[in-house]
């Protein structure tokens, strides 16, 4: 294994798949100069006919991806920011997500729509959304949200060769983070969750940029004798419900720290049982992300996040064998 940055892992996955398969093509916004670094050097290695800058028209890009994939190419359509997918959403929602179903599987659509999602980087409102809940509810499109360089490489390799469209969303501000990446053709099956840390008292489900703060919280709770089992689904479509349910059966206390929005959850509803505490969710309020870091820190969204995130758990020797009336107690208001 070698330590690599997430951007480097993505770049190596693209380079490796393009070298193995001449049908893999990359096009999108500024992919030749590579502002993020994830497509750096691909044009020099594989030629301008396979790596192309596109006009700033997401409608053209998303529709062109559908046509090229239907014609037999494996398309990586780089939209830069996830917010830009809104502009090209007609082809994504009405064509890419439905064409395989409409043709009874006769047409394969190996498309990877890439983009950065999430806030916290002073990128303002038009570059800071978490759009995966909307994609999750479309049907027909898989959604991958890697949290580590190894996951980014493995999921991207699988996504490129998947016959279905895949939305590959990289957590904003995490491209420079380092992590160990296995040698060789590292591949991760879409729909397989990762158990980041094992524990017996509470299950925390986190994705993308939320995995690192969840890990810090788990380490802090461990010093108080509370064992946190941290699950990273890695893909929300398909969702590895079996791994999540298995962990919740063990701990009895589910916490969803998987979304920047109220509109989606990675903790599926379980058949009603008195053995499990209600799912707690950590999320911001319904406010837009500002451009100024100072304003972001002072705005109510941060204060509400801290207040709503203040939860305490008391470890129970048999957490599934019977709860007290208040298995989750709120901490003091801040």
Overview of this protein structure:
Helices cover 31% and strands 21% of the residues. With 334 residues, it is of the alpha/beta class. Helix 8 links the parallel strand 10 (202-206) and strand 11 (228-232). The chain is globular. The relative contact order is 0.11. Mean pLDDT is 80; it is low at 294-334.
Provide the fold topology.
Elements: E1 2-5, H1 6-20, E2 24-28, H2 42-46, E3 51-53, H3 58-70, E4 74-81, H4 89-96, H5 99-102, E5 111-117, H6 132-136, E6 142-144, H7 149-161, E7 166-171, E8 178-181, E9 194-197, E10 202-206, H8 211-222, E11 228-232, E12 235-237, H9 241-251, E13 254-257, E14 280-281, H10 293-298, H11 300-309, E15 311-313, E16 328-330
Helix pairs in contact: 1-7, 3-4
Mean pLDDT level: 80
Q: Strand content of the residues, in percent?
A: 15-25%
Instruction: State the end-to-end CA separation.
Output: 44 Å
The helix/strand class is alpha/beta
Order of helices and strands: EHEHEHEHHEHEHEEEEHEEHEEHHEE
Spatial order of the strands forming the largest sheet? 3-2-4-5-7-6-12
**Unreliable segments of 5+ consecutive residues:** 294-334
Strand count, sense and barrel status of the largest sheet are: 7 strands, mixed
Count of helical stretches = 11
């Amino acid at each position: 294994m070698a330590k690599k940055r997430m951007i480097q892992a993505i770049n190596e996955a693209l380079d490796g798949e393009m070298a193995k398969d001449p049908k893999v093509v990359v096009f999108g916004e500024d992919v030749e100069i590579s502002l993020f670094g994830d497509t750096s050097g691909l044009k020099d290695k594989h030629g301008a006919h396979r790596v192309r800058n596109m006009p700033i028209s997401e409608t053209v890009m998303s529709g062109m991806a559908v046509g090229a994939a239907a014609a037999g190419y494996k398309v990586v359509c780089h939209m830069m920011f996830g917010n830009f997918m809104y502009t090209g959403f007609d082809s994504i929602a009405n064509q890419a997500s439905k064409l395989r179903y409409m043709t009874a599987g006769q047409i394969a659509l190996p498309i990877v729509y890439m983009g950065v999602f999430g806030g916290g980087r002073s990128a303002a409102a038009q570059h800071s959304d978490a759009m995966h809940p909307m994609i999750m509810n479309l049907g027909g499109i898989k959604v991958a949200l890697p949290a580590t360089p190894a996951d980014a490489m493995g999921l991207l390799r699988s996504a490129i060769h998947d016959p279905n469209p895949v939305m590959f969303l990289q957590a904003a501000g995490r491209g420079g983070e380092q992590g160990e990446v296995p040698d060789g053709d590292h591949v991760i099956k879409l729909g397989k969750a990762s158990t980041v840390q094992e524990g017996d008292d509470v299950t925390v489900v986190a994705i993308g940029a939320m995995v690192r703060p969840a890990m810090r919280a788990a380490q802090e709770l461990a010093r108080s004798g509370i064992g946190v089992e941290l699950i990273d689904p890695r893909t929300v479509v398909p969702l590895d419900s079996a791994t999540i349910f298995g962990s919740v059966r063990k701990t009895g206390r589910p916490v969803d720290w998987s979304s920047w929005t109220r509109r989606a959850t990675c903790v599926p509803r379980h058949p009603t049982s008195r053995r499990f505490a209600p799912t707690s969710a950590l999320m911001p309020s319904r406010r837009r992300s500002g451009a100024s870091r100072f304003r972001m820190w002072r705005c109510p969204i941060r204060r509400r996040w801290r207040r709503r995130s203040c939860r305490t758990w008391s470890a129970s020797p048999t957490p599934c064998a019977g709860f007290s009336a208040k298995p989750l107690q709120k901490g003091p208001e801040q």
